[in-house]
Amino acid sequence: MDKHKPTQILPEEYSEIAKFDLDDHPGLAMILNLVGVGVLFGVAWLLMESLVLLRPEYLATENILIITGMREFWRNVLILVISLGLMIILNEGGRWLMYWAITHQRPKIGFKGFYTYAAAPEWYLPKWAYLLIRLAPTTGITLFGLAVVPLVPLNLIPGVLLLVSLNLASATSDLYIVYWLSRVPKDILIRDYGDGVRVYHDDHQPLEVSVQP
After folding, report:
1. 3 backbone dihedrals φ, ψ, rounded to 5°
2. Owning domain of residue 83
3. What is the pLDDT of residues 104-114, one digit of tens each?
4. 104 domain residue, yes or no
5. N or C: which end of the chain has fewer CB within 10 A?
6. CB 168 within 8 A of CB 37
């Protein structure tokens, strides 16, 4: 069996060596949420500053008032709701498509609390495939958002900037998982069951690093 390809059958010599589930780490979950809030405001500020290069004509007094919420309150609320909805659809939709492209099987879409997820709990994925699935939607949405800022009508710019900011803020757990998996061997297999991730490794190969999150 080629252990560098997705499989639905765990090789006999493989066993679980680590598990990552935020329900088991409430302190870490709180830290990641706080970091996400900081990322949201930090990225939003950076994007506003980037308008000097990306769309200088937007930096008029009228448009700044719209972004800072000093007028048209309900319009800003609508922009927030639409941007958040689009972020969820594009992010999880992108991850769903990545799973489908890699496994050739429709993945699972689920809801837990205030977040949604796409997962393939019946599949064991090599490290390269899982990292691609984790990073591709966030990277793609960010690059696409920055690319369209110079092109969209001025009144759509707040929504685009908010979409990119929310997308990066929601990616804190994804980035943490990527960092964690970057420290484990390349020959692992990963099973994402939606609420968490389980990691498997060849029992015949020594582990030279800690794999605990």
Report:
1. -80, 0
2. 14-202
3. 988 888 776 55
4. yes
5. N
6. no
